[in-house]
Design a protein that fits this description.
Layout: H1 3-15, H2 53-56, H3 59-64, H4 70-76, H5 83-94, H6 104-109, H7 119-124, E1 154-155, E2 161-165, H8 199-210, E3 217-221, H9 230-241, E4 248-252, H10 255-258, H11 261-265, H12 267-282, E5 286-291, H13 301-312, E6 316-323, H14 331-343, E7 346-353, H15 367-377, E8 388-393, E9 398-401, E10 407-409, E11 414-419, E12 423-430, H16 438-445, H17 447-471
Parallel strand pairs: 2-3, 3-4, 4-5, 5-6, 6-7, 7-8
Antiparallel strand pairs: 1-2, 8-9, 10-11, 11-12
Bound molecules: iron/sulfur cluster.
Residues 170, 172-174, 177, 179, 183, 222-224, 254 line the site of iron/sulfur cluster (SF4).
C-alpha cells in the first residue's frame, strides 16, 4: 500500500467520531452454531450413567463398547423408549442392507425421548414403520463403481483421480451407505463384495496407480480410513506420496463425526497421520482429511477439540454431507451445519443429493429441495466455506452441480444430467416416488409406464440441449450418447 493511501486512511479515521451500524446487530440466537454440547451428556443413557469423562473420552472405551447387535443397542437405552420401538428397530434392521454399528458417543447424541424424530437416529438406526419401497430404478451399486474398477478396490472414473477402497469396515455403519455392496458384514438382504485390508491386494492397486501417469489425486477410503492401523496410514500415505505422478491424497473418514475421541487419545494414529501430512508438505504435495458430518448435533465440544488437534498439526479438514429428508433438508439445519463446520475449521466442501441406495427411500429427497436450500445457503458464509451441492450421477457420471441438469421433469421426478468430461451419454436421477403427486405415483407403480416417463424426460432434455447448442460457441456433441 502506498504512503498516500495510509494518510488518506488516517484522515478518514480522524473525521469519524462514532461507529455507524449500517446493518442491524444480529439476534444472538442466530449465533447458536457456536454453542457446542459439552459436559457429561452421555450419563443420561442408562448404560453409561456411571462412566466418567476420562473413560468416555478414551477411544479404546468407545471401540470396546461399540454396539454391533440390535439386542445390545436396545438394552443400552432400556427404559428410554417404549417397548413397541424395540420391535420397530428389529424390523428396520431386518430390511436394511447395512448391519448395526454405533459408538457410545453417537448413541449418547440421540434424543431418545424423541427417537422417531431424531436426525441422528434416522441416519443409523432404521425403524420398520417408516421404511418406504425402493424406487423401481434403484440398483445396489447405483454409482457403478465396480464397472470402473480395473483392480479390486480401486475405482478410476475421473481422469486424474482414483478412489482407493483400502478396507471394508467403518467405525459406524450408516443406513444410507452408497457402498453397501461392500461395506460391513453380510445382512439378510446383501452378500458383500470382500475388500479386506491386505497388503497383497493393495500392491496391485499401487502398481496400477504408478502405471497411470494421468493419476495425480488419490482418495483413501473404504470402508473408512479411521479403521486403518497407524502403521497402515503411514504405509499407504508414504507409498502414494513417493510416486512421482501423485500430487494429492485425501484420507476419507466419517470418524470425527462418530468417534472424535480417537483423534484426542489414539496418539499413534494421529502421529502417523501427521507424519504423512508433513512428508507430503516436504514433497510439496497435499495431504488432507475429508470427513462427513450431516447434522449440527453431530458437532460437540469434543469434536471441536479433535478438529483443533488436527488444525494445530497443519492438517486441512473438509466435509462432505449427504442431503437427507428429516435430517438436514431445511434451510435452517443446513445453514447451522455449514456455520458450525466453518466455526470448527472444517471446510464444507460438498452436499450430495442422496444416492439411490436400497432401504433408505425415507431419507432421500428431491433435486428441487437441494436447489432451493443451496440458493439460501450460498452467501450466508464466505465463498470458500460454501458447499457445492451436487448429484453423483447414477450410472457413473460423477458429481454434477445439482442445478446443471439438461432437463428436470418435476412431475415424474426425473432429472437428466450429462457429464462430457467423464463419460458421454445421459445419466438419470429419480426423486422419491412418495414426493410426487398421486397420478405420477400411480405411473411408477405400473412398470409398463416407466419407459414412457424416461422417454419424455429424454425428449425434453435433447430439445433443451439443441436450443443451448445453437447459442453456444462450444461443440457440445460430446455429451451425446446412450442413457446409462
Ligand atoms: S462411514 Fe462411509 S463407508 Fe462407512 S458405512 Fe458410513 S457412509 Fe458407508
Amino acid at each position: 500500500m502506498s504512503t498516500d493511501n495510509i494518510q488518506i486512511g488516517k484522515r478518514g479515521d480522524e473525521q469519524q467520531s462514532e461507529i455507524k451500524h449500517i446493518r442491524p446487530l444480529v439476534d444472538p440466537t442466530t449465533l447458536s452454531h457456536r454453542e457446542l454440547l459439552r459436559g457429561d451428556f452421555w450419563r443420561k443413557i442408562p448404560a453409561y450413567k456411571d462412566v466418567d469423562s476420562e473413560t468416555f473420552l478414551d477411544h479404546k472405551f468407545q471401540m470396546r463398547n461399540t454396539i454391533t447387535s440390535v439386542e445390545k443397542l436396545l438394552s443400552a437405552v432400556q427404559g428410554l423408549v417404549p417397548e413397541s420401538f424395540y420391535d420397530d428397530v428389529a424390523d428396520g434392521f431386518k430390511h436394511s442392507p447395512m448391519s448395526v454399528r454405533v459408538s457410545p458417543y453417537l448413541l449418547s447424541l440421540i434424543d431418545w425421548n424423541n427417537a422417531y424424530a431424531d436426525p441422528l437416529r434416522k441416519q443409523f438406526i432404521p425403524v420398520g414403520s417408516k421404511l418406504l419401497p425402493d424406487h423401481p430404478k434403484l440398483t445396489l451399486d447405483s454409482l457403478s463403481e465396480q464397472e470402473d474398477s480395473p483392480v479390486r478396490g480401486l475405482t478410476h472414473r475421473y481422469r486424474d483421480k482414483a478412489l482407493f477402497l483400502t478396507l471394508d469396515t467403518c467405525p459406524v455403519y450408516c443406513r444410507f451407505c452408497t457402498r453397501s455392496y461392500a461395506v460391513g458384514i453380510d445382512t439378510d438382504d446383501v452378500e458383500k463384495v470382500s475388500l479386506k485390508a491386505r497388503s497383497n491386494r493393495w500392491d496391485l492397486v499401487f502398481q496400477y496407480i504408478s502405471e497411470r501417469p494421468e493419476l495425480e489425486d488419490i482418495v483413501i477410503s473404504g470402508g473408512d480410513s479411521y479403521n486403518l492401523r497407524a502403521s497402515q496410514i503411514r504405509q499407504i500415505g508414504e507409498t502414494l506420496l513417493n510416486m512421482t505422478n501423485i500430487r494429492r491424497i485425501r484420507f476419507a473418514t466419517k470418524g470425527p463425526a462418530v468417534m472424535p475421541q480417537k483423534i484426542l487419545t489414539d496418539h499413534d494414529w494421529v502421529r502417523e497421520l501427521t507424519w504423512v501430512a508433513n512428508h507430503g508438505r516436504r514433497l510439496h504435495k497435499e495431504v488432507v482429511v475429508h470427513t462427513h458430518f450431516n447434522h449440527p448435533n453431530e458437532i460437540t465440544e469434543i469434536t471441536r477439540d479433535a478438529m483443533n488437534a488436527l488444525y494445530e498439526r497443519g492438517i486441512v479438514i473438509r466435509n462432505q454431507s449427504v442431503l437427507q429428508r428429516g435430517v438436514n433438508d431445511t434451510v435452517d439445519e443446513m445453514r447451522e451445519l455449514v456455520r458450525r463446520l466453518s466455526y470448527c475449521n472444517v471446510q464444507p466442501y460438498y452436499v450430495y443429493a442422496h444416492d439411490l441406495v436400497s432401504g433408505v427411500e425415507d431419507l432421500r429427497t428431491t433435486i428441487q429441495t437441494g436447489m432451493d436450500i443451496e440458493k439460501r445457503v450460498r452467501g450466508d458464509v464466505a465463498g470458500f466455506n460454501t458447499p457445492t451441492f451436487v448429484c453423483d450421477a447414477p450410472g457413473g457420471g460423477g458429481k454434477r452441480q445439482i442445478h446443471s441438469f439438461e432437463h428436470y421433469e418435476r412431475a415424474t421426478g426425473i432429472s437428466v444430467y450429462t457429464s462430457p468430461a467423464v463419460k458421454g451419454g445421459f445419466f438419470l436421477y429419480f426423486d422419491p416416488v412418495d414426493t410426487l403427486d398421486e397420478d405420477n405415483q400411480a405411473r411408477w407403480a405400473d412398470a409398463a409406464e416407466h419407459q414412457d416417463m424416461v422417454d419424455d424426460a429424454m425428449d425434453n432434455a435433447r430439445a433443451n440441449m439443441a436450443v443451448a447448442a445453437k447459442a453456444s460457441s462450444i461443440d457440445t456433441s460430446d455429451a451425446d450418447g446412450p442413457v446409462h
